[in-house]
């Protein structure tokens, strides 16, 4: 239990270190992130500029309840329409082939006229008036405001969906290549026909100069309907409001408005036609029932008259007439209660007081009807028969009269049908395009670019195998003489004519130079047991900073009052001469080893007190064989007698065998390890290569250390808040 708090604290500390390290890693890769963001932003801007604009037209429809303008009798409403608007049903009707097919036929949306556009920049060239020369292959591509209008296009079934190439040959003339490779010339306003092929074409207007190319095609009707449906959207505004918003998108604002207006008009017309068809169907049904109803009425009337004649003009008495009236009244009330019961049953349960009250009234009326029918049974047979025949006649007359009334009302309704759809807002296109949203594209591109940049920096950081600190080198059994921090001046080289700057001379207060002084002290005590006062400096691979380290170390050592000789021992690619302004092929080490010049002739003054320099000379064809001569041993002996320290800038160990030869001749050998660049495996391989030849690697120098890039756990962040400057006494 006592260990748990410590574990939690440790985990918390590790998390904090990871977070800080993450921020440091991202900050160190800010240039990469900025580069990715800039490239992504540039791509986003090009996409936004190159994407054709899309315009949107909108219209608003209202679905009304289907009711006639007349007070129709009960039951007629069910014949002429429903009660509530059905938004989803109407939406499906509006998107159906029945409606869209008519629009395709009206506006000839199955005709396709596509201008040729240049690859990649075609949209930009077609939208912006750029200073593009009208010459060469660019003649065929579309420019701003150019169009071609068709008045007629008819192709045989086998050519539907196939392209035809039209080339403008003049202000009012063109040449078209058909799918069968036949070529025809035509003029605007005239019908171009190929009777054998079943082809007809009439171009109404050419708004493009000669040389422009257009692709013509007649697409299948189903495909044109699908294309129209894909650009069309219908949605109900709110819930059960009966308000439909219809949207249509197109690259041409006038086309968007024209197409959407046609869609709404066709939909309204079919709605009116549907309502009229329903009224016509109802009228046809009623008119078919009228003859039968009239026949039944006549039969009932004849039956009553025949019975009266048979019984010698028997009339209803006052009591019987009153009884008939009461029965008719009760039956009418019962029918009304039954209709109301259907409505109440949908709103209440059978135990609800309203429902119970209705059932009570119904039971009372049934009881009254049964009583009245019982009184009818007590009437004389003649009166009872006359009563029944009279009731039947009145019922048949009422049915016939209602049918006549309904037929007349449906005729009036059919003549005044307007449908149940009303256009609230006609089609209109917004002045500004709805796509592309350039600001949004640019913002998303910037965000995505930043995300990709962050991902690149993190992956690059996690995959990095370079040495991150002196602990890794020491764990490999290699002493670290010094850690030289990264400096901007260290990588700044003047290659255009002049000398390369030496930081120890140009900026002696730099933190890198201070690290060189610390290295000078470490080497002074580290070489006390060396056979000669010579030091070979090498590295596992190029670009580790050997030349920079060797030169600045030689300068700070000479500034300490010692006699130093710096030798450029890289006979293959040595360039130390550029630090001292010597020309290429200046005689040096190669000529001395070949016996062509003396040591004095190979040694040059550097302008720094106590510092002498031996360049490589001409690059020899056999550097390894040249270094294996006895003259190298003689050279090291002479340098040991004349100088306090001789520094040999050697080639990379893992690249050539020269460092092994130079290392055997020198008193000590040290390696340069580049922070975050040189893998630890290469350092160990360098150590093994030297050890195989009997050379002990005395230690290494960690060069170019950048605390901002260091992983968690390495904190070589030296801050010098005080400067020590030497002032001359006056």
TrEMBL record:
Domain Tyrosine-protein kinase G-rich: 381-461
Compartments where found: Cell membrane
Residue ranges annotated for the Polysaccharide chain length determinant N-terminal domain, each copy included: 15-104
Reactions it catalyzes: L-tyrosyl-[protein] + ATP = O-phospho-L-tyrosyl-[protein] + ADP + H(+)
Pfam family, one: CbiA
Recorded GO CC terms: plasma membrane
Segments passing through the bilayer: 31-49, 441-463
Coiled-coil region list: 269-375
Membrane-topology annotation of the record: Multi-pass membrane protein
CobQ/CobB/MinD/ParA nucleotide binding domain segment(s): 536-711
Main location: membrane
GO MF terms held by the record: ATP binding; identical protein binding; non-membrane spanning protein tyrosine kinase activity
Keywords carried by this UniProt record: ATP-binding, Cell membrane, Coiled coil, Kinase, Membrane, Nucleotide-binding, Transferase, Transmembrane, Transmembrane helix, Tyrosine-protein kinase
Enzyme Commission number(s) of this protein: 2.7.10.2
Enzyme class: transferase
Membership in a protein family: Belongs to the etk/wzc family.
Protein name: Polysaccharide biosynthesis tyrosine autokinase
Record organism: Sediminimonas qiaohouensis
């Amino acid at each position: 239990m006592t260990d748990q708090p410590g574990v939690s604290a440790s985990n918390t500390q590790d998390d904090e270190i990871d977070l800080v390290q993450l921020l440091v890693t991202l900050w160190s890769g800010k240039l990469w992130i900025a580069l990715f963001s800039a490239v992504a932003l540039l791509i986003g801007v090009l996409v936004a500029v190159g994407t054709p604009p899309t315009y949107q037209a909108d219209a608003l429809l209202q679905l009304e309840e289907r009711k006639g303008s007349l007070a129709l009798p009960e039951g007629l409403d069910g014949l002429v329409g429903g009660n509530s608007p059905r938004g989803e049903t109407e939406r499906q009707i509006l998107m159906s082939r029945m409606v869209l097919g008519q629009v395709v036929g009206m506006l000839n949306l199955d005709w396709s006229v596509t201008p040729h556009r240049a690859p990649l920049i075609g949209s930009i060239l077609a939208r912006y008036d750029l200073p593009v020369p009208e010459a060469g292959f660019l003649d065929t591509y579309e420019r701003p405001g150019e169009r071609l209008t068709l008045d007629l296009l008819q192709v045989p079934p086998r050519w539907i969906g196939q392209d035809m190439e039209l080339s403008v040959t003049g202000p009012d003339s063109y040449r078209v290549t058909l799918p069968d490779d036949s070529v025809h010339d035509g003029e605007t306003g005239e019908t171009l026909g190929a009777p054998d092929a079943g082809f007809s074409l009439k171009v109404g207007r050419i708004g493009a100069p000669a040389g422009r190319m257009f692709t013509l095609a007649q697409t299948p009707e189903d495909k044109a309907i699908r294309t129209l449906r894909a650009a069309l959207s219908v949605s109900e505004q709110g819930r059960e409001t009966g308000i439909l918003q219809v949207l249509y998108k197109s690259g041409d604002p006038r086309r968007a408005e024209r197409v959407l207006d046609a869609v709404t008009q066709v939909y309204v017309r079919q709605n009116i036609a549907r309502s009229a068809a329903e009224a016509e169907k109802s009228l046809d049904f009623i008119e078919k029932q009228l003859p039968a109803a009239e026949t039944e009425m006549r039969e009932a009337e004849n039956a009553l008259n025949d019975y009266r004649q048979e019984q010698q003009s028997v009339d209803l008495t006052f009591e019987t007439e009153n009884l008939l009236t009461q029965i008719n009244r009760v039956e009418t009330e019962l029918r009304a209660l039954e209709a109301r019961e259907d409505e109440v049953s949908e709103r209440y349960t059978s135990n609800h007081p309203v429902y119970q009250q209705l059932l009570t009234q119904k039971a009372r009326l049934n009881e009254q009807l049964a009583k009245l029918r019982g009184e009818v049974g007590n009437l004389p047979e003649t009166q009872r028969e006359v009563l029944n025949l009279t009731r039947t006649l009145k019922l048949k007359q009422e049915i016939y009269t209602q049918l006549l009334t309904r037929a007349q009302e449906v005729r009036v309704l059919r003549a005044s049908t307007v449908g149940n759809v009303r256009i609230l807002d006609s089609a209109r296109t917004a002045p500004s395009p709805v796509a592309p949203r350039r600001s949004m594209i640019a913002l998303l591109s910037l965000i995505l670019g930043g995300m990709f940049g962050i991902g690149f920096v993190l992956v690059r950081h996690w995959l990095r195998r370079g040495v991150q600190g002196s602990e890794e080198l020491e764990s490999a059994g290699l002493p670290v003489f010094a850690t030289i921090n990264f400096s901007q001046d260290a990588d700044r080289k003047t290659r255009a004519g002049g000398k390369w700057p030496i930081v120890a001379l140009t900026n002696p207060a730099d933190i890198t130079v201070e690290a060189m002084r610390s290295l000078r002290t470490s080497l002074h005590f580290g070489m006390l047991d060396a056979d000669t006062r010579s030091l070979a400096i090498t590295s596992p691979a190029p670009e580790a900073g050997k030349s920079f380290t060797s030169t600045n170390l030689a300068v700070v050592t000479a500034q300490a009052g010692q006699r130093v000789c710096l030798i450029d021992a890289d006979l293959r690619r040595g360039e130390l001469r550029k630090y001292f302004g010597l020309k290429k092929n200046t005689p040096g080490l190669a000529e001395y080893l070949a016996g062509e010049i003396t040591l004095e002739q190979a040694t040059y003054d550097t302008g720094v007190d106590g510092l002498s320099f031996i360049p490589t000379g001409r690059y020899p064809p056999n550097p390894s064989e040249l270094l294996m001569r006895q003259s190298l041993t003689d050279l090291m002996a002479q340098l040991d007698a004349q100088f306090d320290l001789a520094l040999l800038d050697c080639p990379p160990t893992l690249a050539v065998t020269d460092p092994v030869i130079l290392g055997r001749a020198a008193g000590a050998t040290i390696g340069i390890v580049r922070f975050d660049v040189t893998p630890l495996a290469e350092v160990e391989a360098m150590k093994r290569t030297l050890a195989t030849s009997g050379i002990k690697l005395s230690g290494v120098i960690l060069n170019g250390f950048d605390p901002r890039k260091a992983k968690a756990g390495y904190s070589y962040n030296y801050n010098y808040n005080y400067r020590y400057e030497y002032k001359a006494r006056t």
